[in-house]
Design goal:
The chain has six helices and five strands; from the N terminus they run ααββαβααββα. With about 220 residues, it is mostly helical. The radius of gyration is 25 Å and the shape is elongated.
């Protein structure tokens, strides 16, 4: 009986010591070492790829944002959906639902609509988005041909939070952005070119334009 109690006590003691050591190693030392290496090697990415404008953090280059007009009536939910057309617009953010606490991108969690290609709701979303893109981006002397509207202008990404748009969608917005900001079209085209990233290693993925970085550059240009 005494031997059984003694063995049990020793086993419990060994288990507690192992738990303590593993907690310190895996729960304290390892995270501190990994965090330290990350902060030294690539602090920008380790801190969330923050994007700054006027010395302030305005978002993350990894997360899409909406560009809406300031609300005149806080109780008017429809007003939040009105885009401020002086900015480049991102992809639609149709995801898994709205969240009143998330004022930057109205999604509960990252995710797509999961609607099939023949779903009536998705078809209506795409048609409505296409009409809006054509209407919003048509300027005097430069009407937008519906056939020129790229797919990413009317569909959300798999995550619903994609920060990039295609160069084709950015190009489609150039005339509207130039007109709204009283800029020369060539200036805005250069902004788009400067903020277009190529394929990874030259062959993986597709070229893209980060909307947040592009709008920060646009703001700097208008301030000049």
């Amino acid at each position: 009986m005494n031997n059984s109690v003694g063995n049990t006590t020793r086993l419990l003691g060994a288990g507690l010591r192992a738990l303590l050591v593993l907690t310190v190693v895996c729960g304290v030392i390892y995270p501190l070492v990994v965090t330290g290496i990350a902060q030294l090697a690539f602090p920008g990415k380790a801190n969330g790829s923050e994007a700054k404008a006027d010395g302030k953090v305005v978002g993350s280059s990894l997360i899409g944002q909406t560009y809406n007009l300031p609300k005149k009536d806080p109780n008017n939910t429809d007003e939040a959906a009105v885009p401020d057309l002086k900015w480049f617009q991102p992809r639609p953010s149709n995801g898994l639902g709205a969240n009143t606490l998330n004022t930057q991108y109205q999604l509960i969690i990252s995710g797509a609509t999961n609607l099939s290609g023949d779903n009536e709701k998705l078809i209506k979303q795409v048609k409505d988005a296409k009409e809006a893109v054509v209407q919003d981006n048509s300027t005097p002397g430069h009407p937008v041909d519906p056939a020129d509207v790229p797919a990413d202008a009317v569909t959300s990404s798999g995550s619903g939070l994609d920060p990039q748009i295609s160069p084709a969608y950015a190009k489609l917005q150039v005339n509207r952005v130039a007109e709204r900001n009283h800029l020369d079209v060539k200036q805005v085209e250069k902004l788009v070119a400067d903020n277009t990233s190529g394929r990874i290693l030259g062959f993986m993925g597709e070229p893209g334009v980060n909307v947040l970085k592009l709008n920060i550059a646009l703001k700097e240009l208008t301030q000049k």
